[in-house]
Amino acid sequence: MELNFALRGAAVLAMLPLAVQAAAQELDSDIAAGGEVFFSSDSDDTEIVRTALDFDLDNRGEDTRYGIRLEKAWYDPSDTGTRERERVFLRAQDAGGEWDWSALIGTDGDTIIGAASIHDNSAWRKEAFIERDIVVTPRGLDEGIYSTFLGAAIDLPADENNIFTVLAGVQEFTGDNVRLHARGNFVHVLDRELGLSAQLRTRYFRSTEPGEFDYYSPRWYAQAMPVIQMRRFVGGWELVGALGVGAQRDATSNWRRSDFANVRVRSPRNDQNWQVYADLIYTNTPGDSTVASVDYNYFQTRIGFTRRF
Length: 309
Known about the structure:
Elements: H1 3-26, E1 32-42, E2 47-59, E3 65-76, E4 83-94, E5 99-107, E6 112-120, E7 126-134, H2 138-143, E8 146-159, E9 162-173, E10 178-191, E11 196-207, E12 220-234, E13 237-250, E14 256-266, E15 274-283, E16 298-308
Antiparallel strand pairs: 1-2, 1-16, 2-3, 3-4, 4-5, 5-6, 6-7, 7-8, 8-9, 9-10, 10-11, 11-12, 12-13, 13-14, 14-15, 15-16
């Protein structure tokens, strides 16, 4: 993947607020403009670059917005050459009531893609979600192989410092493969003022048609990972860091080490209504687009901004 793809996208994002400011003066609404650059790379020589332009006709903060997203994506799966796709989404999000919900629903020109979720705000938090996207492998992009993941989760608080979460889901792939998912997390708050918690994250899935196409699909996969996470607000900035080391295996391998690291930062809204964010993830947990070699690793980053008018 050539770097100029990302540079071109970043240049377009930088010009977006200038174009929107004139429109904001004509509308009596909390409109906003923004953009995002996404990049990922893994040891299977798969690279992805996505640039997105966002325009919200109504934006009242992080949890309430209605607008559109225009996206350009460059996929280079397993170093087999770049495939380009244009994607467009309607996006909506609302919070503050008994139920919070969000939706990013669109198309890549071939089929419906996106994600949607809804959850309540009770102590026993319940959530339902659906996600659909293309499988980023050579056959996935060339033959149009998609996955649709439907699931539900519930929080089970033991007390104010200990929470269990269980999740069940079904993931259907183009073809005959159906994957059943089960996940269980335990969170223990170590220091509420520091935002420090110790967690145990576990997951398991089982496929009905393992190895059907060229995406990672063993008969079954299991993982258990202890994680330390800190989430703090410093001068209005939200800072999150998480580090995990555990074990994983699948139907064709023995137990091996599983690593995870995540750093997130989000700025407060300044006097000019600018806000920026960044997110970095490293893991050696295989995804759908990998062959899951023993020394597999994956890195992704997102950098974006929002300007409210």
